Amino acid sequence: KAGVTQTPRYLIKTRGQQVTLSCSPISGHRSVSWYQQTPGQGLQFLFEYFSETQRNKGNFPGRFSGRQFSNSRSEMNVSTLELGDSALYLCASSLSFGATKNIQYFGAGTRLSVL
Amino acid sequence: DAKTTQPNSMESNEEEPVHLPCNHSTISGTDYIHWYRQLPSQGPEYVIHGLTSNVNNRMASLAIAEDRKSSTLILHRATLRDAAVYYCIRPSNAGNMLTFGGGTRLMVKP
Fold it and tell me: Which residue of A has its CA nearest to B31?
């Protein structure tokens, strides 16, 4: 079974631009979560989608948004990019929602550099 | 509060056992404890999880204290490929969001 796939792997943008990152979860998984990883802040939760609905949101500005499609694939969008948005963006999928025994499976991430 | 406390770093010799501790003193009775690790330049990967009793899988063992306020991840024979940051996490029961602390950076010496 294929793992979590994130595209693209690397991205370079300039300040003020917007970017869209894509995540394909493991087949059959309906929950997709997004995380941002930076050297200073570590791994931080962005948001989670289940059955096309955003279920949880982390403490990030409104420039960060996401969506989930009926096939469970998810995209996240960052508008008006800032230098501080340079990070590794990770996507994780899980079979179901709301139980602390659920295991998260992570992709390799998209490394975004904002110049 | 989903906080866990882990040492910042640990060192081990190759082929020796490693015990990685974690404190989670405010854990509730129904919350699982999960361990993930992140190898260099990769996304985190699941290692093991448990609720009350000790758990074993092909990667590691998890020993959970009787009062559930702490747990220990055990790598029975550390290899160079086990050098990673290990995260002890209490997942939220309101969803699948994980709160990552700083984790323990494990260094394995040949």
Answer: A100
